[in-house]
Amino acid sequence: MTADTQQQTPTETRVPSTPAWAMLRTLGGIALISGLLVALVYQFTLPIIAENQRVLTEKAVFHVLPEASVKHDFVITDKGGLAPVGSGAEGEVVYGGYDAQGHLVGLAITGVAVGYAGPIRVLFAYDPDCRCLTGSKVLSSNETPGFGDKLDFDPVFLKNFEELDARLDAEGKALANPIVTVKHGTKSRPWEIDGISGATISSKAMGRAANAAAQHAVPAIERDLAWLKQQH
């Protein structure tokens, strides 16, 4: 057999292997840098998000309390009363609305309930003169467009909140009649919400949010009502 016909044995080429520790170190470094960037972005955007939320809430307060020109913020304390925000007390915030003469025109209270696509957070107006809810504004919602947004724009549905009964029981610790949503066209009591046809789940969530807001805030408001009227 000649050199021309002799079978050549292929030469193996070895690829240098990367040590496992080096790969882990590289991946760990990338993860550390990524985590640091996420943290920096979060810290940078947090004040912006908080300010946007503050502006949104303030607009909502004056939307549900159109006669107010000034608002003062209070918290519901663990003792069941109210205290000014910044006094050291912590709890759910209640917004007091006052007119130009310093008279209390109403309070804005927050309720949350689970709807069709997640939590619905709503701001309600409470009028201590009629002991009723007189307005509403959805703060956040993921409900289906065309149905869930009726909670904020359907004029027939919004009439439910022109004078929705929220008076307390004899002990002053809970509503005399829990607020509930009923089937469209069957409302017969002042504490009932007439539901929206085609958006039953969303409108029932609105009723639960209103009931939660009133059950939690109205006893504290009524307990300290005389004090609230002096906070102008």
UniProtKB/TrEMBL annotation:
A GO BP entry: electron transport chain
Q: Where in the cell is it found?
A: Cell inner membrane
Q: Does the keyword Nucleus apply?
A: no
What SMART domains does the record point to?
Answer: FMN_bind
This one is known as Ion-translocating oxidoreductase complex subunit G
> What domain of life does the native source organism fall in?
Bacteria
Q: Which residues cross the membrane?
A: 20-44
- The residue ranges of the FMN-binding domain are 115-217
**UniProt-listed InterPro entries:** FMN-bd, Ion_transpt_RnfG/RsxG
Keywords from the UniProt entry? Cell inner membrane, Cell membrane, Electron transport, Flavoprotein, FMN, Membrane, Phosphoprotein, Translocase, Transmembrane, Transmembrane helix, Transport
Gene Ontology CC terms:
plasma membrane
Source organism: Imhoffiella purpurea
GO molecular function terms listed in the Swiss-Prot or TrEMBL record: electron transfer activity; FMN binding
Q: What does this protein do?
A: Part of a membrane-bound complex that couples electron transfer with translocation of ions across the membrane.
What kind of membrane protein is this, topologically?
Single-pass membrane protein
Cofactor or coenzyme needed:
FMN
Q: Which residues carry this modification: FMN phosphoryl threonine?
A: T200
Similarity remark: Belongs to the RnfG family.
Where does it primarily localize?
A: membrane
Quaternary structure, per UniProt, is: The complex is composed of six subunits: RnfA, RnfB, RnfC, RnfD, RnfE and RnfG.
| EC number, as in UniProt | 7.-.-.-
